[in-house]
Amino acid sequence: MTNPGCQADLPLFRHGPVTGVDEAGRGPLAGPVVAAAVTLPPGAIPAGLADSKTLTPSTRLRLAEEIRRVAIGWSVAWADPAEIDVLNILNATMLAMGRAVAGLPVPPAHVLVDGNRCPRLSCTVEALIRGDASVPAISAASILAKVARDAVMTHLDGVFPGYGFAGHKGYPTRAHVESLRRLGPTPAHRRSFRPVAAVLGAA
Q1: Could you give the CA distance from residue 127 to residue 111 in angstroms, rounded to a whole number?
Q2: CA distance 49 to 137
């Protein structure tokens, strides 16, 4: 089945550099959605690459450093909460992915994206469900995106104390929703997301 925005029936590039793209932060109530693009050389794949969600924070940080060291090119980009509210989270994710690919020092010939939707790019692109667990370049992108987003949320924890952003990273935990109801939304919150919109409506 052809996915919207994807090139149909394209073979995976199994020889030569592979560029992977993935995102972090589609589900949270606050913070940006972050995407990363990574081009890995065939002979320098860091050991231990996996879906970032399955790795410990210390392992992600170690692998992120190695990925940046060995990659032919890497790029991290995002769409902020205001863009998410205007575009919706799917379109904002595609925007962030496109920005990440555009930021690569060497334009890729072909891109592999985790999931079932593709951003519109100037090169060919293919979506792979669970690609972050099976394609090293996508796993690498997953790790860089997660590490970058976690750093943003830790920074926002200092800017907006009392919400616990450094702990829950903006996800809708019970503690986050309770602090949101008690303190109200910050500029970092996604106003179009239901729990945030509910607080705004009650106010």
Answers
A1: 9
A2: 9
**pLDDT tens, position by position, 66-112:** 999 999 999 999 999 999 999 999 999 999 999 999 999 999 999 99
pLDDT for res 42: 86
Nearest one of 116, 93, 97, 96 to 108, comparing CA atoms: 97
Residue 182 CB partners (closer than 8 Å, separation 6+): none
DSSP 117: -
Domain ranges in the chain are: 18-151
pLDDT given at position 38 = 98
Q: Are 24 and 10 in contact (CB under 8 A)?
A: no
Q: Quick one: angle between helices 136-159 and 57-70, nearest 10?
A: 120
Q: Are 61 and 68 in contact (CB under 8 A)?
A: no
- Neighbouring CB atoms inside 10 A of 74's CB total 25
Fold of the domain spanning 18-151: Nucleotidyltransferase; domain 5 (3.30.420)
Residue-level pLDDT at 1? 26
